[in-house]
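Just scan my protein:

. . .
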Amino acid sequence: MGYGLAVLGLLLVLSGAPAPAQTRAQTQESNDAAEQELRLPPIGSPAAEAMARYAIEREKKEYRENIERAQEVARLSAELQKAFEQRHGLFPDDLRKLERIEKLARRIRSEAGGSDGDDEGSDLPKSLEQAVRRLANVAKDLSERVEKTPRQVISASVIEKSNELIELVRLIRRLS
């Protein structure tokens, strides 16, 4: 019988239920203490100001990183177009660039407030050459739009261009 009580006590402890000896007031005190730890500092306090400055700096850093992603997409797309014009085809290193472009475009779209469900069918080129050329143009346009868009703005045009870029990457993979 002592074994059964021990198991019951262990189950109560593991289930998180308060032990019978613990009063409602003690439980409320522990909940209040936990909430106290999670509370933000009062507005205007040095701690609140430091937290706000940190949040602003983090947002600025993320914005700069997004601009760098867009610039990398434009650079890689231009390199891909140049390589295609010289070799009249795509090689394994070009396909790796395509993967990188798609990954960066997805990240840019996400940072702009878009998601995977935002893909819209667009008028896609019929040939590989046209697709590669359009990829470079869309990437350049995307880079310019990201740079012009303020960091606090959700940009439908950036999301749209990112989606178009992703569709073009998929098309180029199919055509190559």
Residues 68-175 form one domain.
